[in-house]
Amino acid sequence: MKRKGFSLTELMITLVIMSIVTIMVAGTFIYQEKMMHREETISDLNIKARKVSSYITNEIRKIGLSRLPLTSSTMFGIVSGSEDSLEYTYDSDNGTPGMVDAATDVHIIKVANDTLFIDNFPALTGVGSITFQYFDTKGDSILSSQLPVKEVDLNGNYVLAAGRLPVNRIKFTVNVHSPDKKEHVIYTNVCSIRNIK
């Protein structure tokens, strides 16, 4: 009686085929895991970008807010609006209503060291940059050569240059990145200023 079995060559071929199949399955699994991690990171960045947008939108809508009628001699508005920062005033009513109180009524939005600062307090980390674009009451974009925008000074005096119109919309773009800076999301929003002179 002859015993039938597998030859060494057959075993080696089977082993090679099984190894190739295992490598393909493992490669697919690793690729899908990386993609899932990337999608989670991008989703988290989108949430963070919406949070940044919400912070900034809430602040921009307050520009020029006064607790007294606009006929008051003290004005609130943009102190200095550049491409990468925005300094402005609004009557927060934590001081003297209708007057610019330097401690409570002067505000700033800027990015430094990958952190968004609002009023010089860190609001959110992982923000690589912010850019502002300004539009006047006619809807025309204010050119970068005309920056910084200056509507009022820190004493509440109206200092808008003759022939210039006040700003009524601000477009801002934020670049939010992951901690390892491999992924990033760019988020743009346009916000109207509530109180137009």
Sequence-ordered SSE layout with sheet pairings:
Blueprint: H1 8-60, E1 78-81, E2 85-89, H2 102-105, E3 106-112, E4 115-118, E5 121-125, E6 127-136, E7 167-177, E8 184-192
What's the total number of strands?
A: 8
Show unreliable segments: none
Q: Helix proportion of residues, in percent?
A: 25-40%
Radius of gyration, whole Å: 29 Å
Overall mean confidence score, pLDDT? 85
Question: Structural class of the secondary structure composition?
Answer: alpha+beta
General form? rod-shaped
Q: What portion of the residues fall into strands of 2 or more residues?
A: 25-35%
Structure description:
It is built from 2 helices and 8 strands. By secondary structure, it is α+β, with helices and mostly antiparallel strands. It has one domain (40-192). The longest helix has 53 residues, at 8-60. The radius of gyration is 29 Å and the shape is rod-shaped. The mean pLDDT is 85.
Task: Provide a compact summary of the structure.
Helix content is 29%, strand content 28%.
Descriptive tags:
three-stranded antiparallel β-sheet, 2 helices, 29% helix, five-stranded antiparallel β-sheet, 197 residues, alpha+beta
